[in-house]
Amino acid sequence: MDSQINSTINLSTHPPTLLREIQDRIGGVLVRPSAPLIWSGVITAVMTGVPMVVAIRAAFADLSMDPTKGIDLSGEQAITDLSGLMSDAVVNVFISVSLFLLVALPLSYGAALIGLRAIRGEAPKRSDLFAPYLRLWEFSLFSITLVLAGFIPLLVWIVVAIIASVIMSVVLALGQGDPSGQIVTIMLTVLIVGIPFIFLSVYFQFRLVYAGIAIIDPATGGMGAFPALAKSWRMTRRQNGPLSTVALYATWALIRGTIRGYLVGLFTRGLPEFVALFCGSYDVLADRLRTHEQSSHGSQ
């Protein structure tokens, strides 16, 4: 069965082919982006940027108030200072994740539904932006799964990084080298160890990202969270290369729109094209999967 899915979903094995197919589908709406598509891009940008800004501000709040503030690792107060810092970090992470799950992610997918209707030539509805809240239980299950899929590899990285840093600390301490050089070595070790886990985090989220739009897509007929997650996984099977090309091109679209339009183009061209590429990739891959399923049922 998997081999049948692979051979059907991966109709085009070369990355540019998928991109061209998406461009053919969305080309008409990008000649002059409609107001719904523009608003879809703006809302997506805001919902993506706000949690990031909040997280950065929370992480560096103390340092921004007092740049000279630091932790004396050589003093007796070091453990207390580190504990307080970690507690604040946990609270800040909790706030950022809550904001992401309750506001940013639902409204981002609501904006994506508006964009999806635009590339399909349908008129958006007022309720589209809040569609994830109308399917709150199913969308919540998807949101939690998406966050866990990205967080668990990073959590494993933290555990492995702690073990690796302790081992490196012992080895370097026995060598009695320069303390500043030892710190740099430990930090580099932690970063290098984390590279595979970062890729795993991105990979799992990459494979599940279309489930959110499948849940609220009217064409799916009210699909549940777990069927939507399974659908997204099947849609993206062996599509890492093609979808990576689409993602890179979408990033270039943002940069190109900003440069050509002197920043205003980011909102009138870059963001609409970015959203259209995401919605178009979902639409193309969903059609491929639908064609395969229909042909499979027809042959049985």
Outline type:
globular
Q: What is the terminal-to-terminal distance?
A: 13 Å
Structural class based on helices, strands and sheet pairing? mainly alpha
Q: What is the residue-mean pLDDT, rounded to a whole number?
A: 79
Tell me the series of helices and strands, N- to C-terminal: HHHHHHHHHHHH
Structure annotation, total helices? 12
Rg from Cα: 23 Å
Low-confidence stretches: 1-15, 63-75
Query: What's the helical proportion of residues?
Result: over 70%
Strand content: under 5%
Number of domains: 1
Number of strands: 0
Main pleated-sheet profile? none
Gist?
By secondary structure, this protein is mostly helical. It contains twelve helices and no strands.
What is the element layout, followed by pairings?
Elements: H1 2-9, H2 15-31, H3 35-59, H4 61-65, H5 78-119, H6 131-134, H7 136-175, H8 179-208, H9 211-216, H10 225-235, H11 240-260, H12 264-299
Would you mind describing this structure in some detail?
The protein is mostly helical. The protein has one domain. 82% of the residues lie in helices and 0% in strands. The chain has 12 helices and no strands. Helix 2 packs across helix 12, helix 3 packs antiparallel against helix 5 and helix 7 crosses helix 10. The radius of gyration is 23 Å and the shape is globular.
Give me some keywords for this one.
300 residues, mainly alpha, 82% helix, disordered N terminus
